[in-house]
């Protein structure tokens, strides 16, 4: 199986642009601005994508998903200097923020198409 580095780099860039600000906002909400820095959010995303890509290459299915989830939570815990509970809450809030943004963008997209 060949490794597609182009796809990994594109995935990383898009993830940094989309996930980092959302993760930073969620972290800032839970642990405060002193512990949750934007550069830390970028590092969480970069390492999460790289490690997730490695595990996705070697493992598939539910085992891979569980391992990747634990790794993302560990990265949040480490970089935002939080507890496991706070890391879980940060992840949940980040998902909620992402869903809200996606819904708003979707509604704006529908509104734009209805005007045209």
Structural notes for this entry:
By secondary structure, the chain is an all-alpha fold. It has one domain. Helices cover 85% and strands 0% of the residues. The chain is globular. It starts with a helix and ends with a helix. The model has no long low-confidence stretch (mean pLDDT 87).
What value does the average pLDDT take?
87
Q: Summarize the main sheet.
A: none
Total number of beta strands: 0
Beta-strand proportion: under 5%
Q: Give me the number of helical elements.
A: 4
Low-confidence stretches: none
DSSP helix fraction? over 70%
Distance between the termini: 46 Å
Rg estimate, integer Å:
16 Å
Number of structurally distinct domains: 1
User: Helices and strands: which structural class?
Assistant: mainly alpha
> What sequence of helices (H) and strands (E) makes up the elements?
HHHH
Mass-distribution shape: globular
Q: How are the elements arranged and paired?
A:
Layout: H1 5-31, H2 38-58, H3 61-79, H4 84-115
Helix pairs in contact: 1-2, 1-4, 2-3, 3-4
Quick overview:
This protein is mainly alpha-helical and 116 residues long. It has 4 helices and no strands. The N and C termini lie far apart (46 Å).
